[in-house]
């Protein structure tokens, strides 16, 4: 039995790893926008892999606001919750309240059920840069990165890459810095996030979701960060709609 347990895990894990070394879409970060993008890409039949450096995907969605574990989702984003089977309670002025633990686990479930593969405890440390385009990711174990160990990474080629890393926009930053290129942002660089403004932040999250360099798309707070727009706190409709828009743009690019 002991041998079966170990063999079952090792054989299947390496099969999964092997099947995801060359994909249609590689997503960095398992926050709400990355998970929703993974769901729609997988639903469209694309081969999609998502890397999350923490043990549990879900990003900043689990904790609600100040650990009060409810979040707000506005009316425009409810079709996404309906499609993914997430339960919500109508509140006021079209806004709904959602239990953040229920919603986060539902996004993880929906993405993986649709066929996306999630690798947790992986840190994306760089991109593959070829022919003036982002062509994949360079990944390593998150604990290896945290310990600062000198261990070389693995490479994963991808037709499209999505940065959904949240506030830091670390992928966009390193693409611009290491390759000395200008991004499709107002400044040509990572402009950096502004202070909180809920209405503007929600609208601009979706507007700023785009391809910022050939092969590299941004979603969620990373989309706002690169374009210099507002944070918004524990309202999540913009994150969900941003993930859906990112998937649509990436599908169009993959399909050529
Ligand atoms: C811990 C945390 C606390 C937050 N607190 C606030 C807050 O107080 N106020 C506010 O307005 N917003 C906060 N946010 C962001 C907020 O939750 C967002 O509105 C929303 O969650 C953003 O969604 P997102 O899809 O952009 O990704 P996020 O929810 O930000 O998730 C990004 C994910 O990417 C992962 N990641 C980052 N870099 C890498 C990498 N190199 N390789 C692999 N995975 C990576 C992170 O571990 C995280 O799970 C927080 C986010 C996090 C992660």
UniProtKB/TrEMBL annotation:
<dbReference type="InterPro" id="IPR022828">
    <property type="entry name" value="Thi4_prok"/>
</dbReference>
<comment type="pathway">
    <text>Cofactor biosynthesis; thiamine diphosphate biosynthesis.</text>
</comment>
<feature type="binding site" description="in other chain">
    <location>
        <position position="221"/>
    </location>
    <ligand>
        <name>NAD(+)</name>
    </ligand>
</feature>
<dbReference type="GO" id="GO:0016491">
    <property type="term" value="F:oxidoreductase activity"/>
</dbReference>
<feature type="binding site">
    <location>
        <begin position="150"/>
        <end position="152"/>
    </location>
    <ligand>
        <name>NAD(+)</name>
    </ligand>
</feature>
<keyword id="KW-0560">Oxidoreductase</keyword>
<feature type="binding site" description="in other chain">
    <location>
        <position position="124"/>
    </location>
    <ligand>
        <name>NAD(+)</name>
    </ligand>
</feature>
<dbReference type="GO" id="GO:0052837">
    <property type="term" value="P:thiazole biosynthetic process"/>
</dbReference>
<keyword id="KW-0784">Thiamine biosynthesis</keyword>
<feature type="binding site" description="in other chain">
    <location>
        <begin position="52"/>
        <end position="53"/>
    </location>
    <ligand>
        <name>NAD(+)</name>
    </ligand>
</feature>
<dbReference type="GO" id="GO:0005506">
    <property type="term" value="F:iron ion binding"/>
</dbReference>
<feature type="binding site">
    <location>
        <position position="152"/>
    </location>
    <ligand>
        <name>Fe cation</name>
    </ligand>
</feature>
<feature type="binding site">
    <location>
        <position position="231"/>
    </location>
    <ligand>
        <name>glycine</name>
    </ligand>
</feature>
<dbReference type="Pfam" id="PF01946">
    <property type="entry name" value="Thi4"/>
</dbReference>
<keyword id="KW-0520">NAD</keyword>
<keyword id="KW-0808">Transferase</keyword>
<dbReference type="GO" id="GO:0016763">
    <property type="term" value="F:pentosyltransferase activity"/>
</dbReference>
<dbReference type="GO" id="GO:0009229">
    <property type="term" value="P:thiamine diphosphate biosynthetic process"/>
</dbReference>
<comment type="subunit">
    <text>Homooctamer; tetramer of dimers.</text>
</comment>
<protein>
    <recommendedName>
        <fullName>Thiamine thiazole synthase</fullName>
        <ecNumber>2.4.2.59</ecNumber>
    </recommendedName>
</protein>
<comment type="function">
    <text>Involved in the biosynthesis of the thiazole moiety of thiamine. Catalyzes the conversion of NAD and glycine to adenosine diphosphate 5-(2-hydroxyethyl)-4-methylthiazole-2-carboxylate (ADT), an adenylated thiazole intermediate, using free sulfide as a source of sulfur.</text>
</comment>
<feature type="binding site" description="in other chain">
    <location>
        <position position="60"/>
    </location>
    <ligand>
        <name>NAD(+)</name>
    </ligand>
</feature>
<dbReference type="GO" id="GO:0009228">
    <property type="term" value="P:thiamine biosynthetic process"/>
</dbReference>
<dbReference type="InterPro" id="IPR002922">
    <property type="entry name" value="Thi4_fam"/>
</dbReference>
<comment type="similarity">
    <text>Belongs to the THI4 family.</text>
</comment>
<dbReference type="InterPro" id="IPR036188">
    <property type="entry name" value="FAD/NAD-bd_sf"/>
</dbReference>
<feature type="binding site" description="in other chain">
    <location>
        <position position="167"/>
    </location>
    <ligand>
        <name>Fe cation</name>
    </ligand>
</feature>
<keyword id="KW-0408">Iron</keyword>
<keyword id="KW-0479">Metal-binding</keyword>
<feature type="binding site" description="in other chain">
    <location>
        <position position="33"/>
    </location>
    <ligand>
        <name>NAD(+)</name>
    </ligand>
</feature>
């Amino acid at each position: 039995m002991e041998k079966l347990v170990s063999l079952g895990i090792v054989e299947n894990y390496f099969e999964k790893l092997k099947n995801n070394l060359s994909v249609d879409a590689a997503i960095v970060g398992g926050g709400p926008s990355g998970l929703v993008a993974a769901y729609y890409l997988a639903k469209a039949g694309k081969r999609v892999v998502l890397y999350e450096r923490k043990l549990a995907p879900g990003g900043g969605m689990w904790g609600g606001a100040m650990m009060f574990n409810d979040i707000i989702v506005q009316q425009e984003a409810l079709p996404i919750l309906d499609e993914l089977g997430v339960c919500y309670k109508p509140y006021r002025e079209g806004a709904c309240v959602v239990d953040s633990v229920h919603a986060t686990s539902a996004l993880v479930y929906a993405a993986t059920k649709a066929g996306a593969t999630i690798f947790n405890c992986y840190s994306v440390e760089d991109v593959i840069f070829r022919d003036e385009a982002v062509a994949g990711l360079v990944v390593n174990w998150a604990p290896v990165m945290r310990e600062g160990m000198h261990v070389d990474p693995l490479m994963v080629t991808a037709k499209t890459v999505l940065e959904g890393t949240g506030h830091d926009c670390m992928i966009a930053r390193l693409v611009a810095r290491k390759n000395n290129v200008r991004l499709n942002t107002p400044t040509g660089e990572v402009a950096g996030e502004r202070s909180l403004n809920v209405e503007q932040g929600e609208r601009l999250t979706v507007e700023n979701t785009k391809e910022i360099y050939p092969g590299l798309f941004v979603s969620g707070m990373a989309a706002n960060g690169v374009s210099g727009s507002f944070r918004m706190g524990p309202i999540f409709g913009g994150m969900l709609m941003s993930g859906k828009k990112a998937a649509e743009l990436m599908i169009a690019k993959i399909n050529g």
